[in-house]
PGG domain-containing protein
Amino acid sequence: MEMNPRLEPAAETGDIDALHVLIGEDPYILEGIEQIPFVQTPLHIAANEGHISFALEMINLKPSFAKKLNRDGFSPMHLALINGNTKLVLRLLATDKDLVRVKGWKGMTPFHHAATTGNSKLLFEFLEVCPECIEDVTVRDETALHLALKNDHVEAFKLLFGWLQRSRQAHANSVFAFENKMVNWKDSDDNTVFHIAALREQREALKLLLDSPILLHVQAMNSEGLTALEIIKKVERRDTNIDMIDEDDTKINRLKQKVFPFEKLRVAASRSHNCMSVDMINTMLVVTALVITAVYQSSLSPPGGVWQGDISDSIAATTPASNINPTNHYYPDNGYFNDTYTYILYGKESKKAGTTIMSPIAFGGFWIFNFITFLLTIVLTGFLLSSFHLFLIPLIPLYLLLISYFFSMMILSPSAVWSYINFWLMWLFEFLPLTLYLVWLFKSIATLQLAVVERKYRAQLRQVLGMGKLDIGSIVFFLHKRW
């Protein structure tokens, strides 16, 4: 089945009235075309001839034609691009932004064609309307960055590379994961854009990549076993079966090892978190915020209030006898609180202004449950926020709030013993970040050694390219490996 021959003259001349007459004579004249997988539609003909009004009318009548491929593997937007009809390309883009992602033969999208021809204006327009198009790859696993360099369009590559670094699009895993993945993407020959720039001796692109803060895998090997530096130095092909340990080998070896209880706990926590919907996380965050507020408020206004002035022993001695101690309220005064061990453990009640009216023992029960609730709620909040980018930022004020909590409890404590407990806990949590940093530094020794090797390798590259010694790439490499 082919397109009705009477449609061709109307499409070739851009005659919209003739199209309407044909539809009036046969309302199903366009339906037969719909059933053909690869066909030259009237929209293809109009796009090829540059008839903008006819093309837009055809999209209005049959939107599906815009994504159909003809027998040469081209969509209407492909044809408009090939014929240099920029205005039609932009009008098609305005009707449906996903048209720029339609894959033709060999997986080539209109965006890929723009990169191949080095059309920076269209690349910019495509990225503004459909930023996701930069993720598309051909059947040879080539990104638009690969295609720009392979066709010696360094300016187009610079535009794409600059857009990647400035894009505010959010992506999973981490803030910079997407741009790192795209720049280090390997094609079917295991060539990154860094390899291609080296192969084609594009020194401007090489310098741009080395000077960027992106985590660039400068030591990555292609299918011939060559790094970019070796390509630049014209090193002969190496055996691809050489025995070397890469990141994938490390991950494989790790999977073969025994699973320890702590790792199992982490897996269980991650699975539980992944099962939560956004609404559930939001609801739980509201609850945790209310609990944190209530617990912290209790450190400002403890049950029973605080002493308003110093209570001397002489005043206490003139207090009428009663079997209820004023500072305990509900405990009988049977001498238990005067026990030596109790005194040593909880301390003597000071009854100073600003301290809680509760006795040291009653305060102990209140403090323990309060502290456990506060700490668990903060940990739960951190767990709920862990899937979001920059989740550490809201944890900083919570950490400072925890220190303020201990400081407040230190002032409220009814005895010197409890004051010292809160004082030392306050200092313990203040030094916690430093402790974690030292542990992190100790565990980073192996990575630091890798960073040193990486820096030496980068230094060789910069020397070969005649660049200065300033290099932030090795620093980025080190930080990325740790985080």
Q: What stands out?
A: The chain has two domains: 7-252, 277-442. The chain has 26 helices and no strands.
